[in-house]
Amino acid sequence: MKAILSLLLSSLCLSAIAQEEKMDQMFPEMSRGAGVSFQKFDGLNNRLANFPQYKQIRNATGVLQLGMFKESHQFISQINLMAGSSMSGDRDTKSSTIRYIGAGLDIGYDFIKSSKVALYPLVGIGYQAYQARFFRDNSAVDFNTVLQSTTTQNNIKALDLTNGFLNYRLGAGISAKSPKYHCSIGVQVMYVGSFQDRDWRSGENQTLSNAPSDRLSQIYAGLVLTCRPFFMMRHGKM
């Protein structure tokens, strides 16, 4: 009887361990990233050159991203939400700022069969929505005129333009991994390109006649940190 009970308990323990390992492999790691992207919107900037009251937009944006990262049998998948901003734009002077939000889904393969180092190419698709905002120098506008004239009120408002790009993503990453803590730190470099040129629209995303068009051709480089979800750590999964 004792032998049977021991056998049953052992079977239950092995089953629990196997189930635990299976669940352990199912959960992706959370990823956080910070970097910089470079993108020229020549179509928009060339049109702005004809209007000296507006300042052309910058080419560089700071980027933060948050998502999930999964590696299984050297195959890699990741999904990220990102937000970028030129971190410029002073509403008290003539200035401009460009910012965007987006999402990307990438897959890849780790060519280094190691538990401590990963080197992998990436390919994926995504979407990025842009807003360009332009402030004019309104310091010479009389305050009383603003109060009295709705036309003046409209004229001193910032100008917003929008655009959006369905895109493809090509890149690579390298990272150092900690198998014990299920964390990694590394660098990713991506090229993000749109499938076609897109016209700039109004701030309400309305079509405009004779609008300049641009194509997304962006370079991104950033530091990426991945780590097991917090609730997994709480249950002793470290």
Distance between the termini: 37 Å
Q: Walk across the major sheet and give the strand order.
A: 1-2-3-4-5-6-7-11
> Roughly how much helix do the residues carry, as a percent range?
10-25%
Oligomer: single chain
Q: What profile does the largest beta sheet have?
A: 8 strands, antiparallel, barrel
CATH topology descriptor: Porin
Cα shape: elongated
How much β-strand is present in the residues?
over 45%
Structural class: alpha+beta
Number of helical elements: 5
Residue-averaged pLDDT: 85
Write down the secondary-structure element order.
Answer: HEHEEEEHHEEEEEEH
Spatial extent as radius of gyration? 25 Å
Overall CATH architecture: Beta Barrel
Count of all domains: 1
* CATH top level class name: Mainly Beta
Low-confidence stretches: 3-23, 234-238
